[in-house]
Each structure stands twice: as C-alpha cells, then as structure tokens.
Design goal:
- The protein is about 40% helix and about 15% strand.
- The chain has about 400 residues and is of the alpha/beta class.
- It has three domains: about 110 residues, no CATH class; about 140 residues, Rossmann fold, CATH 3.40.50; about 110 residues, no CATH class.
- Strand 1 and strand 2 form a beta hairpin.
- Helix 10 runs parallel beside helix 12.
- The longest helix has 19 residues.
Length: about 400
Amino acid sequence: MIISGFSHEQEGKYQVLSASFSWEDSDRPTQEIYFRYGADSSYFIFENYHPFLLAAVIPALRYGERRIQIEGAVCPWLMDNLNSFMTYMTNWFWYKYARKKDDHRLVTIEAASLKTAYQAPARTASFFSGGVDSFYTLRRNQLQVPREHAGSIQDLIFVHGFDMGVYPARGTEEDLFKFVLNDLQDVLQETGLNLIPVYTNLRTLAHHLDSWLDEYMGSAMAAVAHGLSGGLSDVFISSSYEIPKLHPFASHPMIEPRLSSYNLRVHHDGERLSRVERVKMIADWPIALASLRVCFEGKDGEMNCGSCPKCIRTKLELLSVGKLQDARTMPGGEPTPQTVRAGLDLEPQTIPFVSTLKDALNAIGRGDLARAVAYKEWEYYLSQATNMKGLATLFDKNVLKGALKRKFSVV
C-alpha cells in the first residue's frame, strides 16, 4: 500500500486533510481518504501523514498488504509502537488474517524520512459520543483533575463516519449528526469545553463487518486524534469493559499506548469500573442524563430509539441505579420482562455486561427483570452452541489450525 499526495486545505470553517491510498497486493481501487475537522489551524502541523498511517494498518493486515509506504515523514516512536500494535493483532486475530497461528509477520512501514520531534502544547482531549463511557471519562476527569492542570480535558472530539454515515441503507446521516451536535451544546456550556466535530471516510478502507469492533476502532480513533497533534499532547479513549472482562478487542489498555507518537500520547481510560458503576457515577450529573446518547438506531430529532438492544440494556442499568425516570433522552418508559425477552438480543461484544447487570437488578428487588436478562443470556449461548457455521469455524481454528480459512479465504 502506498500513501501519497497529502493535502491540507481550508474549506470554510473546516480544515481538511486528505491523501491517496494505492493498494499493491490487493485488487482494490485507489482510494482518497479524508479527515475534515471543525477546528482552527493551530491544531495542525505541516504535512502530517500520521493519521493516514494509523488508518492504514488494520486494512493492510486484513487484505494481506506486505508494506505501507509513506511518501512523507513519520515519527520513529510511532513506527516502533505500531510494530508492537501489529504484533498484538497478529497474535490475537491470526485466524481472521488467514495465517498460521505462529505467523507473526508484520506489515513493513516505509517512510520517506523520520519526523523530528516538536514541542506540542500541553492540551488534553477526549473522544466523546454522548454515551455512558465517554460521559464517565469526562465526569471523572472534571471531578479529579484541576482545570489548570495539563491533564484536564479541554476538547471533546465527536466523529461522523464511525457509527453515523457508514451504513448505505441509512444514508449520510449528516442531519442526525448535526442534531446531536446541537443537543450537546448544553454539555459544552456547563463544562466550558471545546467540541471538535470531525468527518472521515476511513472506514471505507476495511469493509469487513467484524473488523470494526474487534480490530479497527481504536486505531481509527487514534488516526483522527493524530490529525490534531499540532494542538494536542494527550487524548483519552474510553474503555468499553472493566478489567475482569477485558479480552482481545480494538480498544484495549494494551493497545492504545501503542498508537502514540513522541508528540501525541493516546490513553485508555476507565477500565477499573463496571458498566453499571459508570452509569451510577454519571447518573448524579443532570447534564449527562439530559444529553445521554447510546443508540445507533436513532433518527433525526431523537437521541435514542428506546427499543433497540443497547437502549434496553442502558435503561435497565439506569433503572438499577434509580435514575431511569430522569433520563429524558431515553423514550419508551421502563422495560418490562416481556420487552427484555423480545428486544435484548445479545452479541459477543455485549455478553460480558450481563453478569453485573443481573446482580444490579437483583440488588434492587427486580428479580423479574434479572430473570428476563438471564433468559436472553441462555438464548445467546444456545444459539452459539447450535450455530453450525460458528462451530465449523471453531473446529477449523482449534483443530485444523486455520487450514480451511487459509484455503478458502476471500478478502
């Protein structure tokens, strides 16, 4: 893969970085990848290829590219960190990459030159979706870090192109993005923070549906952050799981530090607490309950649909800490055992949340809802046990060591 043709243009109030991606070992057309930032020019440095390199690593691994050639300068610390990052990925996801288990070949990173260090200002940002985890990171930071401290969050980064605008059936969703941006103005007014909206098409580099959460999300967020490294020294990415539930995943405390350069440090934040404990912490913050957005099924004019699995799970968590009635962005009222059994479909990424959720519901005397959650848990494991494709994958991975995958894999 060759990354070339860096461009930095100003389009109205947006700064736009773009570059061309040419594939060498995969039969894919040349792609133009862009990052469009609602930020002033002080956040940017000259000819910064770092966001494009970070955007390229997982797609290069997935599609079997032997190298990433950058026609520009790259920080040597970032190059070394990315070699460690790729080593984690090839150990964790060798099967997805149609490799043998002991095949830890890395994609070679070739840069035209090594970027010299520069003195970035001490300024901290955090990715922000309006969800439980990002609100928790913000709340804890504001409670524990003095505002004059360099580690106090000053910028929130909100991205279009991660969960919005990536599904063709739902269109560009730019109106929804703008609606959510407008709804977050109360958060900005109360906290005194700066919001940086970002548009990117980097997800077009890896179309595999199972690559985003497992492999790509963390490095994609780091890619966006590195585009702002002229103005930022540190950025937080909120954890999805608590320490006992950590597993190979795109956002992980062993991964985020390996996405750092000398000038921009990437931090994984919040893994000490369970999801219910995080909900409890932000539930005492009225502005969080007034602006909470957890849903990927929402439409223009609403933050959450109230009936998808993520909405149901979040409403149960809010109920368990006695705050559901105060969450004005969660429509549909209190879930019943019937709505839980009908709508709380669980997936590999959400099954780790079930045990603490059942305990929290039992603790407030809602055994009926805890039993409904347990029913969905049992239903999930039964579906896994009877999924012939999944069983064949396990047999190939654990017994045949990926022989079938390597023989029949189609990128």
